[in-house]
């Protein structure tokens, strides 16, 4: 697989989790030096301990693109990481399946016709005025694995009309991600605008969100200046920082 200027990349046929490997690399680097590690992209053909939100674990079989991007970002960009990553991954999906336009589900999924196409998982370590970040993403290409603990089904790019190989999908997704993601993090308003134009949630739609504090239900209004979900619940506007839309 070819590389990208200014970006280290690592390819493995199998790994426990690209995010876990990126975090181990990040921790080892931080323990040894304060110098910045060049942006690093880690990818694998399969994962045997893939990770999701809320500690979910599953196997990620061959037939998908699984990757993690390790980079520095300014602290003010941290809230926008999953949304910017979603916009960047969707840019690659659109090149592979032009008919897919709106597929971003808050906060970190790609979904088409109520079926999960991909997901985003981010983590970070703060150091001074910057943060080391790991932005992981996975996209189903020729296979749509089962989703443990979820009622919804998965969908693959192949089911949506993509007739190419996993390798072709990987290159297109990485090209789009690396061309889009770093620049988006310098322009939060562009992240907000791009995400809102590509989300499956329409303004005024009633959303039911499971949060650590309980279930919140309300009318979707907008994203806050920090990238948080704004819901109208009766006479109040509620800001939702984390959770999962039912």
Automatic annotation (TrEMBL):
One of its GO terms (cellular component) is cytoplasm. Signal peptide: none annotated. Residues 4-185 form the BPL/LPL catalytic domain. GO terms for molecular function: biotin--[biotin carboxyl-carrier protein] ligase activity. SUPFAM superfamilies: Class II aaRS and biotin synthetases. It catalyses: biotin + L-lysyl-[protein] + ATP = N(6)-biotinyl-L-lysyl-[protein] + AMP + diphosphate + H(+). Its EC number is 6.3.4.15. Keywords: Biotin, Ligase. It comes from the Bacteria. It holds the Pfam family BPL_LplA_LipB. NCBIfam families: birA_ligase. This is biotin--[biotin carboxyl-carrier protein] ligase. It comes from Thermoanaerobaculum aquaticum.
